[in-house]
Structure formats: C-alpha cells, structure tokens
Design brief:
single chain; alpha+beta; Alpha-Beta Plaits; 6 helices; 26% strand; elongated
Length: 164
C-alpha cells in the first residue's frame, strides 16, 4: 500500500481528524507526526492532497422538536413491566417510564448523522449517555437525571447547528 493510502486509512480511523481536514483547520505537520507513518513531510503532503479531495463541511440544520422526559429506566431492572410504549428499545431491551434517568427526544428531520453529532457534542460537554438510538423520524438519548437539562440544551444546539 502507498504512503498516501496509509495516510487516508489512518485519517478515516480518526473521525476527529477527518472532520478537521474537511473544516480546513489542520496543522498538517502536527497531524503527520501524530499519525507516525514515516516521513512526516511526505505524510503532510499526502494529507494536503487528501484534504483537497474531501467535501468541505457545510451547515445542515435540521427541523426537529426536542423534548425531555424525566423518569426513564431499564424495564425489568429499574422499571416494572409496563404496557407503555418504550422511549427506546434495542434488541429487546426497553427503556420506559418509571426509572432514574432522563430521555431527550428529537422528532423530525433526524438520522444517524444527527445522532453522531449529538453524541459527539454530549461527549464534549462530559454528559454521560446511558443509551441512544435513532429510527424513522425519532432520536432518543438517555442520560442521568441530573444531566437532563444540559443534555436538552446540547441536543437542541446539535440539531439546529449541524455540520455535515
């Protein structure tokens, strides 16, 4: 494999670096040193060429209503079995009302790209995410109750200020 191909693969393994290349905010010498693929100058040149081929990040705000639902928990552990529709269900594991967590729900123009942005921003704000998912036109993230208000603000901001 060529050095250029190795550099592209290394960048794709680091989504933060891929986003920085697309945003045009990379110090190529520092990025090459971090990737540690060999001759830093050659790697930096390969990164410059790769960045030129990438689409730039563009604003892609979405229209979605964001709400918060307190008192969510794991059915069978935190919450007794219920006829209530779960807030989030993954592989037969349901989160529904009656527990110690808070769900932030966005309904509208949401997809996995929005979920990725939401999770990245929640991580940057040190908000713990206990569960997350997206299906159809709904996205849900479940966080500890005390972090519900902060998570609500982050999700609202991520949806309205999305870059893809």
């Amino acid at each position: 494999m060529s050095l250029a191909a190795d550099a592209r693969d290394a960048v794709r393994a680091r989504p933060y670096l891929l986003a920085a290349l697309r945003a045009g905010v990379v110090n190529y010498a520092a990025a090459a040193a971090e990737l540690d693929l060999g001759d830093d100058e050659a790697v930096a040149a390969a990164l410059r060429r790769f960045a030129d081929d990438l689409p730039p990040l563009e604003a892609d705000p979405r229209d979605a209503a964001v709400t918060m639902r307190s008192g969510v928990g794991l059915v069978g552990e935190d919450v007794e079995e219920t006829d209530e529709d779960p807030v989030l269900s993954v592989a037969g594991v349901d989160l529904a009302g009656g527990g110690p967590l808070t769900a932030i729900i966005a309904e509208g123009e949401v997809d996995p790209t929005v979920l990725a942005a939401v999770l990245s921003r929640l991580d940057a704000e040190s908000v713990v995410v206990d569960a997350a998912g997206v299906a159809g036109d709904a996205l849900a993230v479940v966080v500890p109750r005390r972090q519900g208000a902060a998570a609500l603000r982050v999700v609202e901001s991520a949806v309205s200020d999305l870059y893809t």
